[in-house]
Amino acid sequence: MKDLADTSGQPPGAAPNAPPAIELRGISKAFGPVQANKDISLSVAKGAIHGIIGENGAGKSTLMSILYGFYKADRGEILINGQVTQIPDSQAAIAAGIGMVFQHFKLVENFTVLENVVLGAEEGALLRTTMSNARKHLTEIAEEYEMNVDPDAVIEEIGVGQQQRVEILKSLYRNAEILILDEPTGVLTPAEADHLFRILRGLRDEGKTIILITHKLREIMDVTDTVSVMRRGEMTATVKTAETSPEELAELMVGRKVLLRVNKRPAQPGPTVLKVENLRVVDEDKVERLKGVSLEVRAGEILGIAGVAGNGQSELLNVLGGITRATGSVQINGQEIDLTGKHSDGRSRRKRGISHVPEDRQRAGLIMDFAAWENMVFGYQWDPALNTGWLMDNAGIKAETEGKMERFDVRPPNPQLAAKSFSGGNQQKIVLAREIERNPDLLLVGQPTRGVDIGAIEFIHQQIIDLRDAGKAILLVSVELDEIMGLSDRIAVMFDGQIMGERLPDETNEGELGLLMAGVTSGEGAR
Amino acid sequence: MDVMPKWADVVLVPVVSLLLAMVISALVILGIGEDPWAALKLMVQGSFGSTYGWGYTLFYATNFIFTGLAFAVASHASMFNIGAEGQATLGGLGVALVCLALPWPHWALALPAAMVGGALFGAAWAFLPAWLAAKRGSHIVITTIMFNFIGAAVLNYMLVNVMRPAGSMDPASAKFPDGTNLPSLHDILAVVGIPFSKSAPANLAFIIALIACVVVWLLIWRTRFGFELRAYGKSESAAVYAGISPTKIIVVAMLISGGLAGMMAVNNVMGEAERLVLNSVEGAGFIGIAVALMGRNHPLGILLAAILFGFLYQGGAELALWMSIPRELIVVIQGLVILFTGALDNMVRMPIEKIFLAIRRSKQAAGE
């Protein structure tokens, strides 16, 4: 381990000479042949915000799961406030003063805030006394840390930002001194994320210790005091945030220099390829998910759809990809496509020249148990070029797969390997290779770099831009604002199933987009 | 990265499971005061020691190949079809109706017609559960098992009220015309000069079962439909993304599955009994599940597992005949084999995986 800084230095909220709030010594954990954590040592001072950053699969979540009692370490020990502590389960973790806020909230949707906070910490068999005590206690905590949440609000009726606050309150109600947050900003707008960071700083100043797990460099730079970098199960460095830079952290994460910005020439848009008018989708629960969306994408340009997850972007992609049915009108190269009938499936869309890189490659884009060569034709198996009479031309497909894997730098370049054996980035390259090499008129791309290592992001972005430069239309959906700003030639912001407005990346900023993403149309409004 | 080499996965794990089942069976036989070694010798002798034994072993195996393939095809589409019993029952009805419909002049004409009849009836019996699963989300396990009972009742009704020859007290159909009698293995092997027992029931249907293995293999791993079927079986959400219709896959996979189960009747009804009797399937539909599980839903594995279960059936019958081992105990032994090879697969797999992992680690350590 490379120690770039002495982490026992005094962060703002620390008591002098106190033992570290958390100390991990030589933690190792293997799952079968995979060494998820390898001899990890870490010390987090009391009253600090400590970031843990690393690519997917670097072992961050495993490490935190060990700390929270979900997994048992093969070797090593955990010290809480200088005391060696056994954490066999999450009850023990809570007893030791550790609270965890998961990426996917663990709340009962139809319970109130108060009921959720109390759940699992009831005193005695009758609820009445617990509830009145809890109400008082919760109000005190909420006031102390300035987290205003109505205790009687029902979870499903409040926003994600508030739900996250309930998760934090749950931990504080159980007297957590150490708070672990796993990718907390994934579902938040930039403004909500800023609010969260204010809360975290407040908690730190009250002497709480906070561990923030993220893959976003900007958040680490914004809010943490110290940061540890993980790579391939090992802790490669621990540094003071003030003494490092995003470039240095990226390099530590990946192990080589990385280009953080996208290089592209100005777009040269051609004729309109995709024209969407007044698209509406009502889901199974009779909730309107798309409320009259209209947009256009021209050949040779990238239209980026920005928005917080769950505001209709997925439905838009699914309608265009033939998965969801809709009303309204969609034209490809001036010709209407079927939105409700027999030809509203993925196969018909592909025949019309629409390729689709889905948001969830593991559930939709790939069959994880299929070999790479089978995945390389998945969705196009009907194509006569891939068949010889009754049978599929497996030998030909395998040969072609080798070429595609080489051109898209899929590693290892072995067509026989099952999709699940590839890393997230290489899985995504398989999907991209399949969809881009069909030479589509329109490429739908959802979350192209979600769960993809920083090293592969660069390559994937370049492939998308190359396709644009080849004169194809691209509709990009991403919850990563940086990605939208970097790749798009035009940006449309979605909120609550509607397009709130369109902006040009050079003429806008994250603040303005953030407001649109939250549904606020101020000033000049939508163009 | 796979933990184990493929041969360990496909061969070693089932063999170890089988050995464990044999050890426990031996203990049970010891427990009732018989000699397990003598029992094993008798079983092997009785099922593989003579062409007569082989004739019975292969006859049972033929049934299990059809029902095993039936289960496997549905299984690749993640449909748990446990209705092969009922589908084979109805298949028997189809075969019988075809055989009794005309005074068939020669088996070569009757056979294709009977195959179609059996397959159609079996497929029809699978259609309703499939359609309910595709359109209404009914659970295929519940509906197919219910259809087993209904199928048995239908057969009962048909035999007692419709097909029973006038004056007969026996709930069975009339004997099929001679022109439908299939050549036995004795007749077939005589052509190439191999002597084979004349009285054993194995017949031409075994050859058809072998062809079915090849056809199913081609269907699942070489055709577009097989590709789509396997894709749907692994991930429904991905199949929908790719434009594969779940309704089509569910219905067609179940029709093929039911058709294969129905074709079993060519062996037991047309090839052996030469008339339709009550409970002609005798549990082969359920054994097919174990056969497919043990054979990992692969036709070659199913062929081998079917022969193993044919051995257990025939060897078991010999035991009951020649030793004072009750018939029920043979069911126990068969049950143990199913338990170890099907249900307790992971119990054997995980320790073996650990051993391979340890070997690999020590090799890596030595390499470093």
Automatic annotation (TrEMBL), chain A:
Domain spans labelled ABC transporter: 22-257, 274-521
Stored InterPro entries: AAA+_ATPase, ABC_carbohydrate_import_ATPase, ABC_transporter-like_ATP-bd, ABC_transporter-like_CS, P-loop_NTPase
GO cellular component, one term: plasma membrane
Membrane topology listed for this record: Peripheral membrane protein
Keyword Manganese belongs to the record: no
Family annotation (PROSITE patterns): ABC_TRANSPORTER_1, ABC_TRANSPORTER_2
Source organism, top-level taxon: Bacteria
Sample GO molecular function, one term: ATP hydrolysis activity
Subcellular location: Cell membrane
Key words, A-Z: ATP-binding, Cell membrane, Membrane, Nucleotide-binding, Repeat, Sugar transport, Translocase, Transport
UniProt similarity note: Belongs to the ABC transporter superfamily.
Protein name, UniProt field: Nucleoside ABC transporter ATP-binding protein
Organism: Aliiruegeria lutimaris
From TrEMBL, chain B:
Gene Ontology CC annotations of this record: plasma membrane
UniProt-listed CDD domains: TM_PBP1_transp_TpRbsC_like (cd06580)
Membrane-spanning residues: 12-33, 53-74, 86-104, 110-128, 140-160, 202-220, 240-264, 276-295, 302-323, 329-348
Topology of the protein relative to the lipid bilayer: Multi-pass membrane protein
Subcellular location: Cell membrane
Main localisation: membrane
GO molecular function: transmembrane transporter activity
Matches recorded under InterPro entries: ABC_transp_permease
Keywords carried by this UniProt record: Cell membrane, Membrane, Transmembrane, Transmembrane helix
Record-given protein name: Nucleoside ABC transporter membrane protein
Native species: Aliiruegeria lutimaris
